[in-house]
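The records we work with from here on pair a chain with its fold. These numbers are not coordinates but entries in a learned vocabulary of local backbone shapes. To see the layout at work, look at the sequence and tokens printed below.
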Amino acid sequence: MVEAEPETASVAAIDVEPSGDAPSLPACGSGSWRVKTSLPAWAAAVANIAGEWDFACRWSLGLDVAYSAWDYGKATRKFRTFQLRPEARYWFADGHKGWFVEAHLAMISYNVALPGWEWRIQDTDGTNPALGGGFGVGYRLPLSRDNRWHAECAVGAGVYSLRYDRFDNRRDGRLHDSVSRIWGGIDHVSLSVVYTFNLDPR
């Protein structure tokens, strides 16, 4: 009598992958948003804020806004301004830190005077802001381990079309003349504190 051997079942090892799609993460820091403000501007009583969007690995877009509407103690000393400055930046390292270069446009309304100046200068009728743009360079370094806080310094230069009135630099000074010209030179210097939202978690 031959005993039948029990059949053995062959079980194949199956790798089980976790269900659900892994969350997609932005590459090399892109997708983050930043808000910043320049300390030297605040020291000059010019309110300012800027936003920035890291839309690609080494590229970002930003918009700076600045405003001042007062005299500094007397009518012959003032820096009244409203500024809009959009810019595009290229970063030389991933993570949007270190060195960068930028190109910017700007619209700047102004009413400026200092003691000792013969003239107070104001864009014509207060409706002809300086229009132009230029290029700049800067550097950003981290202030916190989680990369939320940064310090940033930047300087830029540009060329602008100006149309302004010159008034005697005294209270209620009379209009002297109007000037139209092209001006070029340093158009911004900043030392900013930067805060980052929506960091790439990798």
